[in-house]
Amino acid sequence: MADHQENPPLIISKIAIIGAGVSGIAAAKQLYHHNPVVFEASDSIGGVWKSCAYNSTKLQSARKDYEFSDFPWPNRDDPSFPSHVEILDYLESYAKHFDVLKFVKFNSKVVELRFVRHPETVELAGNAGEYGSPLPGRPVWEIAVQTNDSENLKRYAFEFVVVCIGKYGDIPKIPNFPHNKGPEMFQGKLLHSLDYCKLDKDAAAQLLKGKKVVVVGYKKSAIDLAVECAEANQGPEGQPCTMVVRTLHWTVPHYWVWGLPFFLFYSTRSSQFLHERPNQTILGTLLCYLLSPMRRGVSKFIESYLLWKLPLQKYGLKPDHPFEEDYASCQMAIMPENFFTEADKGNIVFKRASKWWFWKEGIEFDDNTKMKADVVILATGYDGKKKLKTILAEPFRSLIEYPSGILPLYRGTIHPLVPNMAFVGYIESVANLHTSELRSMWLARLVDEKFKLPSAENMLEQISREMEVMRRTTRFYKRHCISTFSINHSDEICEEMGWNSWRKKSWLSEAFSPYGSQDYGQEK
User: pLDDT value at position 169?
Assistant: First the structure.
């Protein structure tokens, strides 16, 4: 690939945004007054909603829980979950309404981020550990971009870079296998869910119909895929789809528990008061400890409903861990309505296995059983860290990961040791769109120097406190999920921006109403 470095990099804006998914579009809107350049590798906006969606993929929440604060859905009270096509239409409408598409360079894949050190304008740690100016007045990052699959690279220079490529899509996570027991041994068809996403409806049906299909995984993508497989295999000639399940997680059929709305248990200020959060006072920590039986009771209450509503025990799908651990790690999934209907008809079957590998005709398990398969689809997730490390040069490549596996980000946005760069879309909560939008608002004010960051040391201490809370809350802590203290996290962001952290109109609403994007409209 040709890289003409003898030509100086182009300077077309102070700020670059990499990725035009939900987070990239949110960041572009908030940084509109800086005329950012948005590099998007594909030919359209939407991110994973465009590139990693099945034909049946839907949002896992209502419309009003997945909208921008200043752009409500036209049919926001519709209780049905919107399809990925409806979400793409909504994002396109948002981008057009706020005129951010003019910033996007489509078919422009970023292949390298290189820091250009200028000691006179850039301070990595700053005086007394202070984080340097977001816009130092001189480009400090060079970005190599491949356009339309061209062999030639174009180089651009920017003062600040916002990375919005996310953790999902692009690079599949493939399990490791023993020698001579990997995919090369299998004589059938092997795909990752990322490959399956690229198939249209007819091609997907043709792949699955009448075939012995094995889906490896038990998270949302695997569950949706199993349903599509079952639907393609109706009738006497149909074959059952087998799900290979290694780790069980709690699933929910809808957002009601014994007649009560789900938000009462986790999405209000009073409900989150039961959960540990960073920066608690001694009194708060004591109260959290004293109220821990109530917190466990809430989890048991929800579990009792799920075991009554869903045939989890019948199929050996009851997790051994409490429900709150899945919620605290953002791994709760909505179960499609017809999933267990298809299982009852024998169209979806389950195989529990801690270890498995390939043989020529299918999959072999650690209990010495074998399963024949025509098609194996790996719904084993994506390697988001590898995707980021691929484009980020040293020394920063080595800094982006803690031993816990979490990207260490202050306010879910700033790495204290990576100068003049932000990451949006790398922190998870119940509503990731709202999470990205609020942090984009915060970032815009940081870039405009309406407030200053703490020292790098203090930011790292804050990150460590958040990670420690997650570690104590759930065994699945190796992902930056703030769902059990999301309101507290937003409070601290609002306070740094100079906003009132309590956003409701009354004390009653503040305590018992759910928080969402509409509560965080721009303050003048």
Answer: 83
Q: Which of 110, 144, 139, 135 is nearest to 18 (CA)?
A: 110
Long-range contacts of 81-84 (CB under 8 A, 24+ apart): 81/334, 82/58, 83/57, 83/58, 83/59, 84/49, 84/53, 84/54, 84/57, 84/58, 84/59
- In terms of DSSP H, where are the helices of 349-431? 384-391
3-state secondary structure of 490: helix
pLDDT of residue 278: 92
DSSP sequence for 436-471: HHHHHHHHHHHHTTSS----HHHHHHHHHHHHHHHH
Reported as a pLDDT band with limits 50, 70 and 90, residue 124 is very low
Rounded distance between C-alpha atoms, residue 314 and residue 299, angstroms: 21
Assess contact for 182 and 357: CB atoms under 8 A: yes
Q: In what side-by-side order are the strands of the sheet with 375-378?
A: 189-192, 375-378, 213-216, 241-245, 348-352
Torsions phi, psi of 261, nearest 5? -65, 140
CB 416 within 8 A of CB 137: no
Average pLDDT over residues 392-411: 83
- The closest alpha carbon to 177, from 131, 128, 216, 137, belongs to 216
What is the tens place of the pLDDT at every residue in 219-269? 999 999 999 999 999 988 889 999 999 999 999 999 999 999 999 999 999
Average per-residue pLDDT for the chain: 91
Strands (E), 79-211: 104-105, 108-115, 141-147, 152-158, 160-163, 189-192
Rounded Cα–Cα distance for residues 55 and 63 (Å): 19
